[in-house]
Design a protein that fits this description.
Largest sheet: 6 strands, parallel
Number of strands: 9
Mean pLDDT: 83
Length: 318
């Protein structure tokens, strides 16, 4: 099928932003949707199977509406993800009645896919939430955003972020410095999310005041965590004993989010992941919610989604 559309009145600046440098945005849409896109001045031509051609044309029209300023590759990828989710849901063009607005430094922060929006609702409505899925789906970032929002609204008194200090093929002992310096690289992704959502100065002040704590999972033993927003990241690298220890730290007024990717487990061979164990045991426990993400929720570079799909397909063959 061949679709044609002209953007009237023609605006050379918008057209340049829509196409990108050397038409890179058009090439990305072609590759993602398996169509052919060509243009001559303000006239666009899309060739391909009817559903994909219509998808590509509607995507071009949506991006043109945003093209007052240069469009980044990230915006194009996000538009592809969102338009794909909308195509899968007949009523997706209607705004969600319970859409969440998070109070962080990122004023535009919201769930971008149906699973992300479900994840945010689960965090809001449950004391313990699990987010399980591949890299790049926003599990950690959205959880940290919810924690920052809860702190800003005084719904909690502090944020506690933790990860297992498990090596991905390396050994902690070979890293320089004391224990804090050795585990710091494992906690760096949490710092990165906080800097983006709060700003470096605010993070530093929160750490000094004790309203923000970032620590290895082993440091949680023996504590009772009241009036806190607690996030366990990379939970697939916790053991079953560690996971039980962590989940039983919950106190009054506390919300817990556990995130992980069960396809990237770095535990010693023969050791069961605490995340897999907890998902199985707690599946029917009231007050606990689980959100499963897939490659369609990946909002990083489009290659990330294809890498995830390739590895999943290889495991099925095995």
């Amino acid at each position: 099928m061949i679709l044609r559309h002209s953007f009237e009145p023609p605006d050379n600046s918008r057209l340049a932003h829509l196409c990108g440098s050397l038409d890179e945005h058009l090439r990305r849409i072609e590759e993602a949707l398996d169509v052919s896109v060509s243009r001559r001045n303000e006239f666009f031509r899309v060739e391909g199977p009817k559903p994909r051609a219509e998808h590509a044309m509607s995507l071009l029209q949506a991006l043109y509406a945003q093209a007052q300023r240069p469009i980044s590759a990230e915006q194009v990828q996000l538009a592809l993800v969102q338009s794909g989710a909308a195509a899968a849901q007949p009523d997706a063009d209607e705004p969600a009645p319970d859409a969440l607005t998070l109070r962080t430094r990122r004023t535009d922060l919201a769930g971008r896919t149906p699973n992300q929006r479900t994840y945010l609702r689960n965090i809001l409505n449950h004391d313990i939430s699990f987010g399980i899925g591949p890299a790049g789906t926003g599990k950690t970032f959205l959880a940290v955003a919810c924690a920052v929002d809860a702190l800003e609204r005084s719904a909690v008194q502090r944020i506690i972020l933790t990860r297992p200090a498990v090596e991905a093929g390396e050994r902690l002992g070979f890293l320089p410095g004391d224990l804090t310096q050795k585990v710091d690289p494992y906690l760096r992704p949490l710092y990165d999310a906080l800097y983006d959502l709060m700003g470096a100065d605010k993070v530093a002040r929160a750490l000094e005041k004790g309203t923000l704590e970032i620590a290895p999972l082993a440091f949680m033993r023996g504590r009772t965590l009241n009036h806190a927003f607690v996030i366990l990241d990379e939970a697939q690298n916790s053991t079953a004993e560690q996971m039980k220890m962590f989940l039983t730290r919950i106190g009054f007024g506390t919300k817990v989010v556990v995130t992980g990717d069960v396809s990237q487990i770095d535990l010693p061979r023969g050791t069961e992941s605490g995340l897999i164990d907890a998902e199985r045991i707690l599946r029917r426990v009231r007050g606990i919610a689980t959100t499963r993400f897939t490659s369609s929720d990946v909002v990083r570079h489009p290659l990330v989604a294809r890498i995830v799909e390739a590895y999943d397909a290889a495991r099925l063959v095995e």
